[in-house]
Amino acid sequence: MYFFIPYNESIISLFKQHKLRWSPEYRAWYLDLNYFSSVENFIESNSQILNLYPEEEVIYLTQYLKDYYNKLNNVIELSRKADTNFPVPVPQGLSYYPYQRAGVEFLVRKKNVLLADSMGLGKSIQTAGYFNWLLKQKIYPKALVICPASVKYNWLKELNKWLIEPLKIEVVEGKNGFTQETAVHIYILNYDILKDKHFYNLNCIVLDEAHYIKNPEAQRTKEVVRICRSNPHAKIIALTGTPMLNRPVELFPILNLLYPERFNDFFKFTFRYCAAHRKEIPTKQGIKKVWDFSGASNVEELGRILRSTVMLRREKKDVLRELPDKIRTVVPVKQTVSNSFLSLEERTKNIINQIQEINKKIKQIKKENNKELLQQLKAEKLRIRSVALPLINEYRRMAFEEKKDVIVQFLEDTLNNEKVVVFTHHRDVAKFFGETFHHLKPPVLTGETSARDRQAMVEYFQSGKSPLFIATIMAAAEGITLTEASTVVFAEYEWTPAKMLQAEDRLHRIGQKNTVNSYWFALVNSIDEMFINKIVEKLEIQKSVMMDNESEEIFMMV
Asked: What class of enzyme is it (predicted)?
């Protein structure tokens, strides 16, 4: 809003006290209406200025402000929108939740978007919905998805599942140079390998876990900015459940990309929203004055601006009625091609093939009612089982080593905003996570834990003293409640589906207020993936059918 008034030193002093800025372009004093939450707030804060103007002008201004703030509040409500009739193309057999359709509509209607839904609400699915909308308009995506290394192959899986037609998608690996191919519709690569990668003529850039670029001086941030600046006509979609990890200053690099017309001045932003000030610090050369941007100020105002411009944010509590009680996600992990692991994989496959052959024979012999041969085959199956158990246990250990780094990175990202329960099979794996995240002081519950300590650990976690609880599946599958968290990660797994279900149900029980998100990490194109898919498949079936063999071990059924 601009105030035109004849020059007067006392009035100028008053305007400056009220944070008005002189606009040489309009030769008037400018006041940002976003500084105020309502008409009443504006009038109360600026009564001295309004007293300078005739009553009829103030009445007219008041009516204008009522209309303005009504429209602004309507726009802000759109940033929480959880339903819409907006048509979103979807593959046959799949459907979007109403809030996801509303998310796709927001992506379509806005130039750039900060999609800040809580974890587990399907930000990648909504992004696929935007690509589907483009396809419906006969526009093919020329897109780049930048994400943490731990979720590259999950993006590939989700896009292949949710796109309405097959597209050429390439997952980029390695830090070497790179040549963009015109035939590729969507590239997926991680933040750490952006250097020397050049992309042009993109129509969409997706920044998953966009808080990765919170530091403007970090190399990854500079590389993201470079790529975005090289594609000025691309829509930028920033995805993060935690846009601000600790303080408002971390938002500036993201907002500068999404809405440069408004957020283009770092010092202006930090003075207004970070309580920027100079402070003294001791150095070897004596006392030195430095800028401190770690504070926060006018945060409600910043929230209003974000919601009225680029941000869509729904929390689980906003859409809880739409969500199922539990969502299982198998997260694909690319395996390293090590000779030792490949050799173990081959030996494990052989033993599984032997089990499959015996199972076929047993099934046939049961029909023939040959009891003597049936007993021989069952004895042979037990013999193979005795060989298979230690081999598969070794495979399970090596599979975890292959997945370890990805799981740790996933936890680091998730723990920024969520409380998590991690389940393992081996005690040493549980202890590994305890040591890796020792700064969070997580309880580590294993078969060695006494009954007294076990209960103390549960109470410690349930009272919110740590965001992380670690346990072996067999030690924690029964008799405890972990509803403080709604996110569970299986770093390892048991062969018995019922045991996995029991572990999940430590969170999914009376007292749980949110949808439980259950994450299973699987090595792509491996026995590990086959086992996990089998377990998840069996658990999904158990939703509607009471299975006779629910306690049978998966590798014996393969």
From this structure: hydrolase
